Amino acid sequence: xxxxxxxxxxxxxxxxxxxxxxxxxxxxxxxxxxxxxxxxxxxxxxxxxxxxxxxxxxxxxxxxxxxxxxxxxxxxxxxxxxxxxxxxxxxxxxxxxxxxxxxxxxxxxxxxxxxxxxxxxxxxxxxxxxxxxxxxxxxxxxxxxxxxxxxxxxxxxxxxxxxxxxxxxxxxxxxxxxxxxxxxxxxxxxxxxxxxxxxxxxxxxxxxxxxxxxxxxxxxxxxxxxxxxxxxxxxxxxxxxxxxxxxxxxxxxxxxxxxxxxxxxxxxxxxxxxxxxxxxxxxxxxxxxxxxxxxxxxxxxxxxxxxxxxxxxxxxxxxxxxxxxxxxxxxxxxxxxxxxxxxxxxxxxxxxxxxxxxxxxxxxxxxxxxxxxxxxxxxxxxxxxxxxxxxxxxxxxxxxxxxx
Amino acid sequence: xxxxxxxxxxxxxxxxxxxxxxxxxxxxxxxxxxxxxxxxxxxxxxxxxxxxxxxxxxxxxxxxxxxxxxxxxxxxxxxxxxxxxxxxxxxxxxxxxxxxxxxxxxxxxxxxxxxxxxxxxxxxxxxxxxxxxxxxxxxxxxxxxxxxxxxxxxxxxxxxxxxxxxxxxxxxxxxxxxxxxxxxxxxxxxxxxxxxxxxxxxxxxxxxxxxxxxxxxxxxxxxxxxxxxxxxxxxxxxxxxxxxxxxxxxxxxxxxxxxxxxxxxxxxxxxxxxxxxxxxxxxxxxxxxxxxxxxxxxxxxxxxxxxxxxxxxxxxxxxxxxxxxxxxxxxxxxxxxxxxxxxxxxxxxxxxxxxxxxxxxxxxxxxxxxxxxxxxxxxxxxxxxxxxxxxxxxxxxxxxxxxx
Lengths: 404, 404
Fold this sequence. Notes:
The structure is a homodimer. The longest helix of chain A is centred in the middle third of the chain and has 43 residues, at about 160-205. In chain A, about 50% of the residues lie in helices and about 10% in strands. Chain A has two domains: about 5-180, GAF domain (Beta-Lactamase, 2-Layer Sandwich), CATH 3.30.450; about 205-404, Hypothetical protein af1432 (Orthogonal Bundle), CATH 1.10.3210.10. With about 400 residues, chain A is of the alpha+beta class. Chain A has helices spanning about 5-20, 20-35, 60-75, 85-95, 115-120, 160-205, 210-225, 230-240, 255, 265-270, 275-280, 285-300, 320-335, 345-355, 360-370, 370-380, 400-404; strands at about 40-50, 50-60, 80, 100, 130-135, 140-150, 155. Chain A contains 17 helices and seven strands. In chain A, strands 1, 2, 3, 4, 5, 6 and 7 form a seven-stranded antiparallel beta sheet that branches. The interface between A and B is large, with 76 and 76 residues.
């Protein structure tokens, strides 16, 4: 192997290690592997428990022939069991690569066989295949890289053994990078689930179910996306918004759960939940926590300056606060409560529309009203279910052993 | 460069990427760099904002001469400003490596100079030095690797330029691995801080400060460590135990905050907080959440089977539950409350001792009593402070702008 090639593999390894978005990482791995092996196409499968999940695929010939739109349509994620019968499954089960110069020559009695249905359907002709298990440091197979049709003068030829060696080295780096990205994704998921569980538990003091905060988070992210914000901002608002009412933990039941209207003094205590929430979250270097401090403090401000606790006006109110204000009120008035049926949709939308420039940022109202189909999808997906209501109040007949 | 060497660097890169413990990773980087360059010693600095933090150091000659105990004593983490004057600082500021065949030949008017105080103090003689900035993919310097005295026939010689090239490649891999480990550490820290903030906020409903859950977490980890459990178990109990009382969110103020003794019916409602906590955390694939479900459900069981909610007995109670039971009761009786002064220590210990085999696992009581010095350190470090008490109740005079 040439020094130049080795240096390239080192550089590629660093690129892989620096990419923390799984989808982008898999695309990067596949395109680099294609480049190194001159393969016309390829795909990556990841192992998830006892399933192989088809994640990423590229095929230059079909891309030229069918165009990117059609390709997107036919390349869908699918799952299959991990068995020796498929080529990818064989590599996954045995941990050994398969180097096949011509799939038409695979003996009938081999453990594995080539499934030509994709070729037949889209008029492609697979000849040579290289299947490489992606193994982590403990030699556990975490996925499979499959490369198709190494090209020489535009004709499929057998994969070059010298190049295959490079691909094997490369695939070890790829496996570690994939595993690291999965690990950070798991850490993030664990964090977010904790936020929803704890914030949701706090919601039970004055709501029947915790789905309110789920819906508000989704509405808020939708608004942020429609405003054209980057992924980080949209994620941040999604994960910080469940904590917007955390300050209600400092409000007594007698006020929080009072059925009738509040006296002026009670209202002023109730309004403190914004400040208490900000205090819970103050002085943090963690982005999601300082973000939730801002959301807690400002989600009851109104665009015309009549909100609380600071009577901020217009864009003095941080965008996050303006977004949650709209998402929160919309969900509150459009959901069912014990003491009242949900408002009819026209009435809800009339209130939102009328609030533009008064309660709400008019630009946000406009965006919100332009994506009602997506809003309704969220409402349906995270609807309050009867069986969730009063979950913590009726504890009879629970199987405690099942909880251990 | 030889193929064998390159393959080794690739393998080392994979080892680095697979190591997620920062301290172990830095040691691995340093020992590999020493091995590649035949250096007698070396150290790694990491950049933290405007400071360089001295993290890891190895010196074979001094290790032989002084022994591991003495080395541990003299090698302490320290911080220094990032300025061009020191060798490591020069590499950090300029992003360029320094290759110094003999430190005694550094011109007096050079930007940087070599500080001989360590050599003088411990009778070491530094001659050749190689200083390599650790740069991430965006060419930002995240740390510095410094190697001392490349040895040939046990004599310090200048570092070999051919080897230096390998070290430069290696250092890029090292930088990415360090950055990835720091990223996962940050993700974990963010998660844990969220747990403490949200669980702490929930505590304010019936406690004056949230330090109770801090102390209980620390006591619990201490017990797990003294029992000889591995780092993962100890971490898990530390981070899940703040959530042990989260089910109190489902208990009304009228019971939770009742000053006098509870009626039997009120007590039975109060006891539900164990089950509610388990329900908040049920059906999760996230380890920390399922762990906190177990802690919530079982931390009021008693060793003799007289606890609640399941009247589990002895080792039927999961270890986590037995640990938190002891830590929680100890903290409750040894802390000050609004309505009473803290109990004198002898009385607290007498209660714990007497509870062995009745309320508490006798083995845990024994371990706990054998590490009272460490227990007291935790008590002092996380003591309830007057200014924290009633933080959320007295909100007058707060500067809200400072919270935005």
